[in-house]
Amino acid sequence: IGMLPSGGYALDVDLFVEITGLSQENAEKLVTATHQVCPYSNATHGNIDVRLHTTVI
């Protein structure tokens, strides 16, 4: 939760994803594609700033 320049409050999200068995490039592509079709992501699209962080372990 953070304050907007206009004086209100807003939510933003840092989503940390750990994946095994893929290259970093393919893991990032998978996470991005999944985020685009996720019902929750679609419901909040344009209302919440989401930053994706993908790590291959």
Give the integer mean of the pLDDT values.
93
Low-pLDDT parts are: none
The helix/strand series, from N terminus to C terminus, equals EEEHHE
User: How many beta-strand elements?
Assistant: 4
Could you please say which CATH topology applies here? GMP Synthetase, Chain A, domain 3
Gap between N and C termini: 29 Å
**Structural domains: how many:** 1
Helix content: 25-40%
Beta-strand content bin? 35-45%
Number of helical runs? 2
Helix/strand structural class: alpha+beta
- Quick one: CATH superfamily? K homology (KH) domain
Per CATH, the class reads: Alpha Beta
Q: What's the main sheet like?
A: 2 strands, antiparallel
Calculate Rg over CA atoms.
14 Å
Give the neighbour order of strands across the main sheet.
Answer: 1-2
Spatial shape: elongated
CATH architecture: 2-Layer Sandwich
Structure notes:
The chain is 35% helix and 35% strand. By secondary structure, it is an alpha+beta fold. It has one domain (12-56): K homology (KH) domain (GMP Synthetase, Chain A, domain 3, 2-Layer Sandwich). The strands form two sheets. It has a two-stranded antiparallel ribbon. Strands 3-4 form a two-stranded parallel ribbon. 0% of the residues are buried.
